[in-house]
Design goal:
By secondary structure, this protein is α+β, with helices and mostly antiparallel strands. The strands form four sheets. It has a nine-stranded mixed β-sheet. The longest helix is centred in the middle third of the chain and has 20 residues.
Length: 484
């Protein structure tokens, strides 16, 4: 029997989202990624004596916005707390977080896996400051002989989003995380650059025999920063726990780190070594009072969220798959919507957006935002094809030139003489020459082998370098062959 036949997986996640502010949560230091180590610091984020925190109002706006996007209740009264622990990347020896009175609670995210819809609960989302970063000599802390500390990230504003343990399979976990990240991206709460650590996942997972009501002993795998790592970590951890249970051993409740290179989890600390954080209210910050007017002002800034956009695109004729691909990236979805303003065949636009446009982006290694082809230009190109000014085949060469030069499609078609030939007189002259050279094909057609028409159309297109209107060519060939 497989593992899923013997055990049910139970999973909940904690997602740390860096908020898209220019300055840190309690000081004016830059949040810019990639600066020289220990240059984006000041007495406040380094916790020097006498330095006091001042809350960045934009952090609160973004936390409210995220909470609304996650269908949370926004608390009218919340407060900050000190979470005490000793670690090299925390200069204060405590983290300013929110404990019993968070800003957001009781939300949900709807997902769909293999046609089945499910609602995943959000327990809470709270604001906190980020710690610094250990720069390891090896791949992980467990395999390193030394680590340096970079405090640039200290004080960067975070929103920690805690789910209910509602997920029962790895596809459900991935669907939830992908949808949550998209919500953060669409609301512009975060840039969601996973490769830069803007979003980090802690995965809590346990197994229980089918039919058992009580949860099994869970482990927590910390600081995963890609969906691929989450999938691989869960596959490994589920198999590891199942093997322990099969052998009659106990799963130890512990905190783990994921070793990407070796594809295994490694222990950081056990339950017995777990910290007592000794939370108490932050004495240097007053409680946060948010009136309904503040919440409503933020609500007015909410964009169309990914789930709503998918439904709108499906109403325009896109399949579930097409709508999912288009909305998977806010930048691509925004590009599509802009192009749709000047070109109204949503399905054909989706085909070109997911096909030639995305292929050329990947070939040039540029993002949607960096694309030399603008949405209006793609729409204009498709209008030229639909009007018969150029063929679809010519259109593919035109979009390549658009990527190379940034020119409008009409300009490229004119400069290169690519306009489609629909003039029947000009085409008949070419067709007559072609039929004279292919007498055997003419005889085959007259003998009933009508499929030869495809060959003759292809030869005509070749003779006109793809510029002939294939519909017109097809009709003219049939008329001419009927006369012979």
């Amino acid at each position: 029997m497989s593992i899923s036949d013997r055990y049910e997986m139970v999973c909940g996640v904690e997602v740390h989202v860096e908020l898209a502010t220019k300055t840190k949560i309690f000081c004016n230091c830059s949040t810019e990624f990639g600066g020289e180590q220990n240059t984006h610091v000041c007495p406040v984020c380094m916790a020097l004596p006498g330095a006091l925190p001042v809350l960045n109002r934009e952090v609160v706006d973004l936390a409210i916005k995220a909470g609304l996007g996650l269908n949370c209740e926004i608390a009218e009264f919340s407060k900050f707390d000190r979470k005490n622990y000793f670690y090299p990347d925390s200069p204060k020896n405590y983290q300013i977080s929110q404990f019993d009175l968070p800003i957001c609670k009781n939300g949900f995210v709807d997902i769909e896996v293999e046609g089945e819809k499910k609602r995943i609960g959000i327990t809470r989302a709270h604001m906190e400051d980020d710690a610094g970063k250990l720069v390891h000599s090896g791949e992980t802390i467990s395999t390193s002989h030394e680590s340096n500390v970079d405090y640039n990230r200290t004080g960067v504003p975070l929103l920690e989003i805690v789910s209910e343990p509602d997920m029962r399979s790895i596809p459900e976990v991935l669907a939830f995380l992908e949808e949550l990240v998209k919500i953060m991206q669409y609301t512009e709460v975060s840039d969601c650059r996973l490769e830069q650590g803007s979003v980090r996942f802690d995965i809590n997972v346990s197994l229980r025999p089918w039919g058992q009501k009580e949860f099994g002993t869970r482990t927590e795998s910390k600081n995963l920063n890609s969906f691929s790592s989450v999938r691989r970590c869960l596959e490994y951890e589920v198999a590891r726990q199942a093997q322990l249970l099969d052998d009659g051993e106990e799963v130890i409740q512990e905190t783990l780190t994921w070793d990407e290179g070796h594809g295994i989890t490694l222990s950081l600390r056990s339950k017995e070594e777990a910290h007592d954080y000794r939370y108490f209210p932050e004495p240097d910050l007053p409680p946060l009072v948010i009136d309904r007017a503040w919440v409503e002002r933020v609500r007015q800034t909410l964009p169309e969220l990914p789930a709503a956009r998918r439904e709108r695109l499906k109403a325009l004729g896109l399949s579930d798959y097409d709508a999912g691909v288009i909305t998977n990236s806010k930048a691509l979805s925004d590009f599509f919507d802009e192009a749709l303003k000047g070109y109204h065949d949503a399905k054909n636009l989706a085909n070109w957006t997911m096909g030639e446009f995305t292929r050329l982006l990947n070939a040039q290694g540029v993002s949607v935002e960096e694309s030399p082809v603008k949405p209006q230009q793609l729409g204009a190109l498709l209008n030229l094809i639909d009007k018969g000014s150029i063929s679809g085949k010519i259109g593919k060469s035109v979009i390549e030139e658009m990527f190379a030069s940034g020119k409008d499609p009409e300009v490229i078609v004119k400069e290169k003489g690519l306009a489609q030939i629909s003039d029947e007189g000009a085409l008949l002259k070419i067709i007559d020459e072609l039929l004279a050279k292919n007498s055997q094909s003419v005889e085959d057609y007259k003998a009933g082998k009508t499929q030869v028409i495809g060959f003759l159309v292809g030869q005509t297109m070749k003779a006109t370098k793809g510029q002939a209107n294939p519909g017109v060519v097809n009709n003219l060939l049939k008329e001419r062959l009927a006369q012979l």
